Amino acid sequence: MKIVFSQDHKFQDGKSELIDGQIQPPVEKPARAEQILSAVTEARIGEVLAPAPVDRALLQTVHTPAYLDFLETAWDEWVAAHGDWDALPLDWPARTFTHRVPEAIDGKMGYYSFDAGTPITSGTWRAVTASASVAATGATLVADGERAVFSLCRPPGHHAAADVYGGYCFINNAAVAVEALRARGFSRPAIIDVDYHHGNGTQAIFYGRGDVFFASIHADPRQEFPYFLGYADETGDGAGEGANANFPLRWGTGWKSGYEEALEAALDRIAAYGPDVLVVSLGADTYHEDPISQFTLDTDDFPRIGEHLKRAGLPTLFVMEGGYAIDALGRNVANVLSGFEGA
Ligand code: OKP
Ligand code: ZN
Fold first, then answer.
1. Fold of 2-63+123-342
2. Which pLDDT band, with edges at 50, 70 and 90, does 96 fall under?
3. Residue 303 above 90 pLDDT?
């Protein structure tokens, strides 16, 4: 399986994340991608290729022009206002407020975000466009006939919606990949999101559409981030009714205590949709030692995820999302891919 990777991920290197009320070192850090790259290289998953630059027009099939302009200029506006420390929002238009876009950078950040844990830094734009290019190039390779490709994206993307960032995500790489695949003639893509957290951004992007299926297996939003989306009764809207399927699972879920069953149910729903290509939002934060997560999958369970995905029998693009247990992350990701290759 070919791997697409860009070193430019390293330009997203936040100084701080607000965790449990304290400013701490970010858990979403460059070492994650480096660990994954060395593990997939060691496991001989396949050749590593550099991405082609991503077109702005492709990004605009997913994100609004105003949002992309905001992301591109936010750092400079923040530095002019406050100096060159990480840009973090602190004020949001919750219920009772208007949804106007303010002039001040702090107000714009609140308008375009949903959490205070996702720093904009000097290199954010460069890193997030590189991450999107990794996804888009992976899609091109699948369209050119590769059976399966691994887009080693960083930063992740599945929490980002058309004009909202958060959850360490700015550009929705999986959605960009879907649009790149559609542009190359695939007409019925399905996305399966196996990251521990609900892919709220991906769901929101495709919620009103019947031409893209979205299934997500994740920690129950009653207990876990992103809290306000990811419930089982979210089934799609309008033309998208029936094309969204959520499988929320309680904290403590393991392979035999609910995960495998949910994965099979999600893949059954995808098979019933009749897709022509599969995009996997691949998180390894379902691992029992993940520092911010509460599922109990073990390293031996990850190849089984790959085996189940292989049985869908579809051209498949893996897009990297989360996973924060840095020492085991690369091995767990490589295990999914080798499980897929071996099945
Ligand atoms: C990104 B991805 C938990 C705070 C959670 C954001 C988590 C984003 C996860 N107390 N902060 O889905 O792995
Ligand atoms: Zn996650």
1. Arginase; Chain A (3.40.800)
2. very high
3. yes
**What is the CA(175)–ligand 1 centre distance, in A?**
19
Q: What is the distance in A from the centroid of ligand 2 to the CA of 229?
A: 14
The tokens for 3 are 């791997």
Alpha helices in the chain (DSSP H): 30-42, 56-59, 65-82, 105-112, 124-143, 173-183, 200-206, 260-273, 302-310, 326-342
pTM of the model: 0.98
Does residue 149 contact residue 318 with C-beta atoms inside 8 Å?
yes
Other Cβ atoms within 10 Å of 272 Cβ, number: 11
Q: Is the pLDDT of residue 107 over 90?
A: yes
Catalytically active residues are 159
Closest ligand 1 atom to residue 323 Cα is 13
Looking at the DSSP assignment, which residues form a beta bridge with residue 164? 161
As a dihedral over the C-alpha atoms of residue 281, residue 305, residue 145, residue 42, rounded to 10 degrees, the angle is 90
